[in-house]
Amino acid sequence: MRPVALLTDFGLADHYVGVLHAVLEREAPGVGRIDLGHQVPPGDVWTACFLLRCAWSSLPADAVVLAVVDPGVGGDRRPLAARIGGRWLVAPDNGLAAAIGVAAEVVTLDWQRMGLATPSATFHGRDLFAPAAARLARGDDPATLGDRVAPDGLEPCPIPEPDGNGGTWHAVVIHVDRFGNLITNLRAAAVLQTAVAWYGAPRPARRAGSYSEAAPGEVVLLEGSAGLLELAVNRGSAAALTGLSRGDDVDIASGT
Amino acid sequence: MRPVALLTDFGLADHYVGVLHAVLEREAPGVGRIDLGHQVPPGDVWTACFLLRCAWSSLPADAVVLAVVDPGVGGDRRPLAARIGGRWLVAPDNGLAAAIGVAAEVVTLDWQRMGLATPSATFHGRDLFAPAAARLARGDDPATLGDRVAPDGLEPCPIPEPDGNGGTWHAVVIHVDRFGNLITNLRAAAVLQTAVAWYGAPRPARRAGSYSEAAPGEVVLLEGSAGLLELAVNRGSAAALTGLSRGDDVDIASGT
Amino acid sequence: MRPVALLTDFGLADHYVGVLHAVLEREAPGVGRIDLGHQVPPGDVWTACFLLRCAWSSLPADAVVLAVVDPGVGGDRRPLAARIGGRWLVAPDNGLAAAIGVAAEVVTLDWQRMGLATPSATFHGRDLFAPAAARLARGDDPATLGDRVAPDGLEPCPIPEPDGNGGTWHAVVIHVDRFGNLITNLRAAAVLQTAVAWYGAPRPARRAGSYSEAAPGEVVLLEGSAGLLELAVNRGSAAALTGLSRGDDVDIASGT
Lengths: 256, 256, 256
Prior knowledge:
Chain A is of the alpha+beta class. The first copy, chain A, has helices at 16-27, 45-56, 96-100, 124-138, 238-242, and strands spanning 4-8, 33-37, 64-68, 79-84, 87-92, 105-108, 148-149, 163-164, 168-176, 182-187, 196-198, 205-206, 219-223, 228-233, 249-253.
């Protein structure tokens, strides 16, 4: 059986996440279940795309990812299962699949084809997405979920790409993590090790190889664990120190 | 082995929830474990009843539910295991079982009968309830947990029933979820599709079939995923917009 | 397969915890996974030691504990696996192992020996600790993780021991839990049942056997579930009522 990883904006104060797990266990008893996170701010597809992208390559090669961040529930956005590499993503078509890459295979989710009860107006996670993920986990033929559709018409990911070239890049903070690290959209591989970052302070942040190379209270430019450049402070919060938040500009120059 | 679903007010900042999982895995290795939620406000039996009721029917048909919201721990409230349909609920007798329905079978939990060490004064979840749930998950005879008692003497659920009739109902907000939806105690099936809700604003909220039928910023009356009527705002928070919270009145008239 | 219990300061808003679970499931498919908690304040080794100590004895006897609270990531602190009793702790050498007891066997974690890719600068949980935990869970020989080192040179646990003797103890609040209980570092077994606690109020708190023995609003001295004395209030928060927090003094006298 394929393991299922869950990502939602349901939070943990209500029964919603527990119900997804319950449906998975009910429809695919014994399935391995992994929580990628449920604290995505309500309806924040951008954050969901970011987290999914960061976690993707660590997942088991045959994982099914159930991602329910779905501000358009009950509207006309398409519910999908998309195969990307050996993994399946089950999600609304709102940029989540495109955040990962090009799908090799896409089917729409059709509750009638799947023999499900009429979905509620508000909880397609329970009524449609989780049952579909359970079937893929069990190894059901994707054709039993709904119609095959072209993989090239999916909604784009809302996270912007950095602007610039090998010399100077206009990057953007795309995520602030629990530790206050300001993660940008620029891959570390795009610039030299001597790169510096201008973020509004009189002096730019210099590159460092790890937290421990930074002086106390110094904002440094670091390659984070997803390969993206981030502004970070050793044993401190770059977000608190700089006042920057998601969407703010960071200019990164390769230096000399 | 039966899967075990957990609901507590322990929060996630301490070791308490992890210890319940540890005891389950220790006493019933490999048991499926499902977190229904641990953010019930401390001692809030009402919320625990609500969440349990919403999740119940999604659970595997043979689930054991370990619900530890227990403001009376160390006092004289009875620890119980109650079979309701094919599922077992293991919980203090404080309204949780009654929130679900009529139990077919009830046993009190007796640590001596179970051969357990003397329970601590403060953590019966670890010392009594989780070991009992693990035994039921393994398929032990309920008679080995303690004495059978009459199912009709259980504590009532604290959530009020709506007051009224088919024409006009005095409902109450019984839960505010993460998205700010104001969930009432009135079942959608009790009123016509044309029903409107008076909640303190000059004009009532009209029924809508889904979020997407609402105008931006409009408070609508929606059938939520548990079959209850709720006040909701498309891509917004009805709680923030109306100022209503749990316990507030909503008058729902079937309309014409 | 041994089950793996996880304790981190990663919080639940990012992908970090999900990635640890993903790596465990990828490297040890079907492994039992238990979350001991992820809300340890960033870099707070003290709290991690406390939670680990409280949960330890409830774990399955062959558990592997993956504890990643690692303010020194990328610096020169040693990554370790330490066997204590029948359980393994996989963690940075910063006091976590010493919080539990004397290790019978310790190996450093060597990514080259393990055949892993070069670890990132910031996420050794994913790149080193979780792969090591997965190997121990699968039953791999600890010698394949790295070099054996002497168990007696580990970093000490930062939680202070109480100061005093059988008559009067100068204890310290070492943890405030979700319910506002003020847990001290003094074991209940160290004092008589008649002990009282001076904490800054005009009158001391008296010992009680359980919450229900306390009068409404009364601060009492209780034996908590880890065997430590705590200041507690029946259906209330001792932290809110007393204004005490971690590190504050509590003088406990055995009384007469």
